[in-house]
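Entry 14. Structure prediction run on the chain below.
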Amino acid sequence: MNREELGRLYPIQIVPYDERWPSYFEQEKENLLRILGSECALRVEHIGSTAVPGLSAKPTIDILVEIPADQTGLEPLLIRKMNENNYIHMKEQKKHLMFVKGYLPTGLDKISFHIHMGTKEQEFLWDRICFRDYLRIHPDVAKEYERLKIKLAQTYKYDREAYTEAKTELVNRITGLAKEKLS
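Output returned:
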């Protein structure tokens, strides 16, 4: 499928916060730990908008998994384990390992997941925790982000890449503020 066809099949939809999102994360975390084991999944974090109470979001649970820095033979093992358990490897993601679940040939399942994997040295991944935590303790900033997402979802309903790109400036600004506060 090309980008436009994918956009039509999986349009961007922002929905009100769902109190079940944290429990969906916890269930999926247990599933990932069972699949990968503690020697591969060193840490598992709920990231993204569904990890911020009260924040409207796409109904997709984003999860960040820390993997060992020693990558010798690890990537093929992780891909095999995840594929065997019905996760789709996003090969076009080159910066880190990424898998999705809940993407059906007819559209998104009721709940879907994005699993991001990387080492603790891949700072750009772990910046997402700073971003999440900042939104959690600054509800006014979270609302600003929510308003932007709702507007962009209308503008880029069928273009996920453009939607994500259009959020980048605000996400980077908030992440920078969050990192300043932590240092």
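The chain is about 50% helix and 20% strand.
Filed with the rest of this week's runs.
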